[in-house]
Amino acid sequence: MLETWLTTTLGLEVPILGAPMGGRAGGALAGEVSKAGGLGMLGAARYTTPEWIAAEAAVARERGGRVGIGLMTWSLDADDTLLAAAIAERPTLVSLSFGDPAPYVPRVHDAGILVASQVNTLDDLRVADRAGVDVIVAQGGEAGGHTGRIGTLPLLQELLDATDLPVLAAGGIGTGRGLAAVIAAGAQGAVIGTALLASPETVGPDYARTAVVDAGSADTVYTSVFDRARHQPWPERWGGRAIANDFTRDFHGTDVADEQLESGYDPADPRRGVVYAGEAVGLVHEARPAGDVVRRIAEDAERLLSRFA
């Protein structure tokens, strides 16, 4: 068994977190990741309700016994209702990312819950460190959904040299080779998202799973056009990595009004809707249960690392 700070501290069998993907990671997916020995995370987007958090946390626990919850800090700055709802569920871990978590860390710690913070730059690390978080997630620009611009390996190396906090890696990790690589570099585990997107337990339309299976690693684009089309007020510094389609080919990189983006967007049409996915999408070749994906990644990583033990 791969034993790291993550497995020892959280009582996990494998050093893997399921990414808290807003709109995709509900209770079924989180529960299956936890059942496989990792920790599944619910993705609480800005439009999530407290009732959704409670219901999906119950599903996750029924399937896998434990759950984590990921929140967007910039959204909490306007309305922290979801933080109270998350704390009420007593999750194993709360992730506070995309913004300064300082106003919220004490409330989570007072409930006896550990806090992770996903960072995209060295400056982000300093902010999270000052806030008193327990674990850092180095999220590279290869990651799906909202992310930064620095690649995972350069960012991971920079953060590992800059902090004594435990660090996890996220972005571009879709097989045991990726998990083995980041653990060998000094990470305490990995956060995987794209590798799970074709799994039947994900939330979302069937066409999204098909698009993930069909896409290659060069078929993603880092863009803000989907946020603008849906009036999602993400801070400008975070774009989203998605599978390229007709919508991005028409509008990404063009000078177009938000009203035109809104009229051209269609969530029911695979050619015009959004499928957020990272560059590891090229490693997803079939729809497989999430638990099988997690177990295979962990087993392959352990086998690879044992060669050099």
From TrEMBL:
State which residue ranges cross the membrane.
none
Q: Which domain of life is it from?
A: Bacteria
Query: What UniProt keywords apply to this chain's record, in alphabetical order?
Result: Flavoprotein, FMN, Monooxygenase, Oxidoreductase
Q: Which InterPro entries match?
A: Aldolase_TIM, NMO
GO molecular function ontology, one term from the record: monooxygenase activity
Name the SUPFAM superfamilies on file.
Inosine monophosphate dehydrogenase (IMPDH)
Pfam families of this UniProt entry? NMO (PF03060)
Name of this protein? Nitronate monooxygenase
